[in-house]
Each structure stands twice: as structure tokens, then as C-alpha cells.
Records
---
Amino acid sequence: LDALQEETVHSVLIVSDPFFAKNGEAARIGALIPGASVTIFGEVTPDPTLELVTQGLALLQQCRPELLIALGGGSAIDAAKGMWLFYEHPDTSFDGLRQRFLDIRKRAFKFPKLGQKAKLVAIPTTSGTGSEVTSFSVITDKQNGNIKYPLADYRLTPDVAIIDPQFTRSMPKSIVADTGLDVLTHAIEAYVSVMASDYTDGLALHAIEMVFTYLEKSYNGDPLAREKMHNASCIAGMAFTNAFLGLNHSMAHKLGAECHIPHGRANAILLPYVIKYNATKPTKFASFPKYKEYVADERYAKIARRVGLCSADTPISEAVDCLVKAIRELMTVTERPLCIKDCGVSEAEFMSKVDELSYKAFEDQCTTANPVYPLVSEIKELYREAYYGE
């Protein structure tokens, strides 16, 4: 925070979850800004809602800070981004913010410029979302169907990201596993996205290698592995904020919101099924000007070869199978459920929601960057397979 100390900061608001608000970490970080009045909003819960953002906004308007610090996992950072936006531009329409687009650089609705009233510093305490370096903020609208909306614009990117592995040492093993598998999903989806480029490919591949090398060790408490996974999370974030994600995240957003499954866990369960689906050459692949030919199957195979899951001459379909098998093995050693049913979701509940889940996933912003443009019926079948573990 040295660079920020050179500016005049009279008021600071720290956005955090109850854990860091109560254990003193939020106050300790606030003390690093000498002479500033520090206010802590420690009410952030998983899957932040529009109502939570509004609650935090009221506090922002009271203390009128020049510096906003997000301390926590992806939920705290996403909530802080939403609060930041509405603090600077209170008349902004949420309905406009959530509008879908094909290319983030060319859209009908313009996000307003941020940073005029306050700077945003993001300090992640989990190793999963990469939200500290991304243009995304996932906000749930409970009043209109309990829908998770991935708001996306480069103006939502924090001014400063501080990647400090000390915060990961106290992470419970379940969070280590869920967030680590979220990193893997981010990197894999970024690598096969229709918006992938030479600049994002290197970041995505390196993050994938790091997850396969360090996640199990991190799960078992190795401090160096915890640091490496924290770095991998940020690296994957830099990849997908430019290359975007895909159908896996679209489906996980809706599944998590409706069935109360942690985001990283939902991603991991769906990942083998989405990979197999995307690796089957479609009749029609996704529409994007620079995606000239379908190459998703070759890219999945390249991941498997790069990580050492198969030899260089392994046929594409077999290499894809090796990748799927390795993901399931990683889920097993980190004690993650392999299907939706094992998350405690009853068959009757899931089947009553699967049609709506499929439509909502199809409409999700992330779907547009998927290498295969899916039918709603195909998404429903993927959900069904993932529920039973077929």
C-alpha cells in the first residue's frame, strides 16, 4: 500500500466477510493507512446479492472513502466491485449492467468510468476466483429469479491487487479444494475459448500445470504449494479476463445459485462433462470473427500432453480422455463429490429445476465464448449426466 500512502486518504472502507472482520485482520490492514478513518463492512456472505451491495453502498455513502479495500474471497471482491460502481455512479441501471454481449469491447451499454471518488484495492484470501485482476463481478439477483449475473467490463478491474499467500494458511481443506478446482476450470475454459490468443494461452497453460503440480500438496497443507496455488489463481484470472470463460461457468453459475453448491465445486463436477461435450466436433461451432475453425478437441489434447498425462503421439480423443480422467483423480484425492447427487441435492428437487437451469445457463454471458454453441436440450442432458455421474 506504499504507493497509495503518498496520496491523501482521509477515509477507508474495508469490505470483508465476517471471519476477517472478527479476527482483526481487516482492522490490521486498515492500520497500514496512517491518519485515515477506517470503517469495516464485514457482512459479505457467499454469492453476494444485489441487496448486499445496496447495504454496503449505504455505508459507503456515509463515510465517503477515497480508498476501498476488498479483503476476502471472490464474494468479498465481487461485492466491493458492485459497491464501488454504484458509489461512483448511483444512477447506473443494474438491468443495463447485466445485458449480454458478444464482444466485451463492442457493446451497447457502456459501463461508467470508475476511480473518480475512490480507488479499489483487492486482497484475495482464497486461491480461486482471480477476481482481483479480472473485469468480472458475479452478483445474484434474488428478487428476480435468484439469478447469478456475471457483470463484465474492464472498468471493474481493481486498481491494485495484492497477492499475499499468508492469508491462505488458515484456509480449510474444503475451500482449498473447491477454489483450486475453480482455478483449473478458469484456465481450461480460457484456453479453449473462442477469444483465446497467444497472450492468454501462455497464462492459461502455466496455471493448468501449476494446479496439477500443487493442488494436492496444497490440500494437504504444504505452505509452498499454498503460495503456488495463490499465484496460479491470479495467473488464471489474467487469462480469463481477456479470453473469457465458457459453458462450464454458465452452468455452474445457475447450479450453484439454485442448489446451493459452492461455485468451485459446481465447476469441478461439470468440467469432465463439458470437456467431453466440447471435444466432440459440432455441426456448428460458436460464432466469433477470429475463431475461424473448430480446434477445441486439439486444445484439450494439447493440455493433456503439456501436463504429461499422455505422450505426444497419443490420438486426440484418447488425450481428451486422459485429461478427463486426471481431473476426476484430482477431485478424488481432494475428497470432492463427483456428481451433483452426492452434493445432497434430491432427485425430485433437481429434476423440477433442470429445465429452468438449462435455459438460464444458455442465456448466461459466459456461453458466448464457448467453442461449441449449445442447444438448450444439450445443456439439459449435460446437467442430467452430471447429476447421476454417468
---
Amino acid sequence: MLTNTGESGLEDLIVQHLIQVNGYELGVNEDYNRDHAVDETRLLRFLQTTQPEECEKLGLFVNDHKKAQFLNRLQGEIAKRGVIDVLRNGIKVYPANLIMFYMTPTARNLKAAEMFEQNIFSVTRQLMYSKDHTRLALDFVLFINGLPVITCELKNRLTKQNVEDAVQQYKRDRDPRELLFNFKRCMVHFAIDDDQVKFCTKLNGKNSWFLPFNKGYNGGAGNPPNPHGIKTDYLWQAIFTKTELADIIENYAQVVAEVDETTRKKTYKQIFPRYHKLSVVKALLADAKDKGPGQKYLIQHSAGSGKSNSIAWTAHQLVTLEKDGASIFDSIVVVTDRI
């Protein structure tokens, strides 16, 4: 059997894993509404299946005019609040309140577990996203309940291209004025090869800022050798699982406002956790849940790598830790030498 060593071979590998192991559905371009940047087929199916009474209030399936009104309102809410907040908190479309994502269930909450399983995770290959340049396509896009959350561009070093070529493709060829690439429309944009991963939360042409999303190796950058496969397979095998993406949406990803002290002007920044941040917070939570309070830890992050976020995410989730139905921590105190 011949092995596909080209870029499409890596795409095959990832998408097959998402569908066969992670439980994703495979979308097609015909499902995608370019006017509103949603997988309309799965968006409407999710709402009809989980909230038929709310859909009836809106007359969502009565005629195209009602459907267009809803899609316009959804588009406006995403533009205003961002896809992360819309997934977390749903939207109000008078006279209905729509849940856009069912959160991770707590232990023993069978109803919540049942509703979480109603979420539709899907992947569309070679997504033709543009209204005006209809042949332009992304390697693949991940959707949750029809809302795009992650775009991906792939390169394969066997074809003499690497992650930096994928980064340049985003900077050079992916126009941020396209609806799918508008700020807050997706959680994150990944550049991937078989050796490294980088990501960006705000596409801005040549000024797009990409950060590593690697495990690190021997105390430095990059990824360790993988005796069982590709160095970067942790991305689709561990990060692109339903439970992990849900955890990131609920506890890590966010849009924050920063205020200039001189002009009082607000700017907005979308945050997606880097791999080492996810790793350290999860390790702390797991150990604290197992051993309880009173332990000591030393976490080393380099300058500018996001220590404040790691502290905040840890504190936020320590409060919610339970064991045998009882809270592990009554209160959390953070002592810092900076504002």
C-alpha cells in the first residue's frame, strides 16, 4: 500500500482520527453558509434537536425570512461578543433564549451528560470560505454546533515546507476582512506541520502574531521525538477531543479588554492557552484533587510566557474542585508583586 507523504496525507491522517476516534462528523462545503460563516446544516439540526420549542417560537423552520433574521442576529452577536461568549452563554432572539453549547457535565449529573452528547463536533476539509474568491480553501475547519471555532493550515516537511510556510500562508493569503477571519469569529487559527505547531488568535495580515503551541523538548523549544507517530499528533489526539475543547471554551479561552491609562481607550485581546499553560494548570489541579490542600509547588515559566494567566486559571478552577461531594478549598489567596 502506498503512503501519502504529501500535505493531503497529513490532512487525511488528522481528519480520519477526528472522525473515527474523536467522534466528529464530516462536513462538506454545501453545508457551509458563506454569508454568515456557519455550518448551517448542523447549526439548525442542533437547535431543532435540542430546543424544538424555542425554534417554534422563532418560526425558524417556517420560512426563509425567519431563518435569515435568526442568522443575522447570530452573526451580530458573534461580532459583538465573540464566538467563545456565544458558546458559553447562548443568545437571546426575542422571544426565545437559545443555548448554543451544552457544557461539560458534573459528576453524577446524568441529564447534563446526555445533553453534552447532543453537541455536534464536526470537521470540514478544504473549506471554501470566501464569497468573492470561491476557489480559496482552508485545509480544514473545526465546528461546534455549526459555529466555526478553529481553522487549520497544514504543511509537511517531506514536501520541503514547514510550519513557517503555513504561518506565511495565513499572513499573506488569508484576508482578515473575510467574515470567517474577522476578530472573535473563531477561537484560534493553527499552523501545523509534522514537527511543530503555532497559533494566532487575531489575523491581521503581515502583522498577525503567531505563538508556539509545542510541548517543549530538553528544556527548550520544539517537540520531543514520538516513537508512536508524528511529533505533533498530541494536537488532534489530545487537544481536539470533545472534552478538551469543551474545557478550553469553559475555563481558558476568553476575550479581555485592556484600557490605556492615558487615553482610556479600550482594546480587545482574544486569549487561547498555550500548551505549557494547559499542562501546568491541569497538573496542579490533578495533584491538588488527589492530595488536598497544603502542598508546595514550583512552576517555572519564561518571561512573557503567560504566568499571570496560569495563576488566574489555576485559582479559578481550584475553587470548583470537589472530592466526595465536598469542596477541597474554602478560599484562594493570591499574593503577587505586580498589579
---
Amino acid sequence: MKKILQITNSLARHGTETFIVNVLKHINLADFQFDFLLFTPEMSGDYTEIVKQLGSQVYYASSRSMGFKTYCKVLDDFFRKHSKEYIAVHFSGCTMSTLMPLYYAKKYSIPIRIIHAHSSSYSGIHNYILHEFNKFRLGTLATHALACSVEAAEWFFSKTRFEKNNIIIRNGIQYEDFIFSNEIRQSIRRKFNIDNSTFVLGHVGYFMPVKNHTFLLDVFYEFNKRYDSTKLLLIGEGKLKDEISEKVRKLNIEHKVLFLGNRSDVNQLLQAFDCFVFPSLYEGLPFSIIEAQVAGLPIFASDRISKETQISNNIEYIDINKSSQYWAEKILSVANVSQDRFFDVKKYSYFSIDHTVRQLTDIYNS
């Protein structure tokens, strides 16, 4: 059995972590074991117990916020002790603000050292400076460069030896789990006391600035003025949740907005939506948009999101600088239209989890 060390910030239910766990669930566990090196302690509702049940070991290292010297010492100690167990490290992130895990993986002779880009931009000038600086070091540390989209590859690998030598690994999903079911739709709507006349807008995402929940509420507020019976379902947790909850109160729409928290049944909740709204400021290649399209939903997404996410004719990319009123009018255009929730699975097989696993298996076996 080949052991792969997955290195990422946490096992929270975010896009990057969901990608890794989806791969773990579908890879041949007789051939591969994933272990995890994380920089954020276990938290309620994350994937920790799931990966342990699938045979993974979970280790924790000090984050850079604890001091660079401590951060490096902990990494050095870990790789000195464990490096001979692994044939590969798979380092996933949204910036290259640090490459130290790859440095120690190379120091202790782990043969396959993968850097995996999961975003197409950054937040904070400090991260940007470190990201650009580390591009000069990447070619000496990594053996393989992966990205979730062409835009993410450009953000990570431009002006490096991997600029034209990277591999796009789509954030594959299990299509069958998301195909529309009217039976599930009715069950979920009954559960949340939503009748069939109510038009439901939905969003899936961590409550953080990049997801732009504040603007999403503005859009919903304007839509609510134009449509008699409507609700907004928000799936996720995060540091800005209290702030968003407060804005809901100020707008006096508490009875219209449901905070559903982190969920393991997103595939079923999507069936109850009538529309998916995603006004992010930037992304890599978000799972949620792919999932929503497979569920047959009309989608209104920010134009900052890669057009590589389009796998149906039901998605419209809107200028993020347009007003909330403009977005609301766009959504209104589908509110009274009968929706065909069919999705052609065969046409877009390259977004299937099976395709993703085959790509990664080839790399791990290289």
C-alpha cells in the first residue's frame, strides 16, 4: 500500500478539504492510504472522524502564527520521524505564502512532492508578497504542479517552470448524488415548512469576505421586494456568520432567511432550491456551482468566477459591480418560468469524481 501525506490547513467542510475527502472516499483503499498533516486543530462538524474511519492518520503542526521558528521546528521534527512512510506529499492551498512543507519533504527525500492550486487570487498584501516570492523557489521543491482550473494555474505557476507544465485536476463530484429528484425536493421542503408557491434562493459557502454574503443579502432584499413568496437558504459556517445574521435582523427579513449551518446533505438540500446565487469576489473552481448545475438549477454567479465552471446552459455570469437591483431583476426573469431540472451526465464526464481519481492515481504511481 502506498501512503500519501495530504497537507492542508484543516479538515473543515470547505472546498479544498471537500475535494480531498471526496477523492479519499473513491480511491482504492487497498492501494492507497491518505494521512493528513494539518495546521488548524480539529473542530466541530469537520471531516476528521470521516477520514479516520477510512483509515487515515491525522497529525497537527504549528501554524506560522505561532512563530516561524516554532513552525519550522515542528515540520522538521515531523518529517524526520515520518518521511520514510510516504511516497508522496500532496500540498493543497489557496496561495503559496509558504512552501516549507515541500522544503522539508525534499530535505527528507520524499520522491513525489505535489503543489496543488485551489484559488485564483488572494486576500491580504502580506500573502501576495510571499506568494510571488515563493514562485522563485517552487521549481526546486515541487515535482508536480496541479490546479483546479486554468485561472488557478495562472495565479500559482506563471513565471515558474510549471507555467506550461501543470495538470488541471477538476473538482470532481459523484454526479448521481446530485441529479434532481422531485421526491427529495418535496421531502426537504416539508421539513423546512416551505410550500410549493415559495421561490427559494440558495447559497453554499463559508462565511468569509470572498463569498460576499453581504451583497448576497442585498440582492435577496431587492428580490424580496419584487416577489411575494420567497426564502433564502444559506448553507455553511464561518467567522462572518454573526455579522451576516445581524444584517438580516437590520433588514427585517429574519422570517425569510434560514441559516442551515454545515451540512452533509447538501446534495438533497439543492433539490429544494429554485435558484442558486453565487456572488464571490474570486474563486478557484468552486464545487458548489458544479453541484448546483448537476441538480439542474438556474445559477447567477459573479463574473469573477472561471467560465470553466460552466457545464450547463443554466448559468449566467453577472458583473459583480452591477447593483443588487440588477441582480434581483435577473433572478426575477426565471422566477415564473417552469424549470427543466435535467442534466446530461455523459456530456460532462470530466467533472466526475471517477475521472479525478484516475488522474491522481496516475500521478501517485509515477
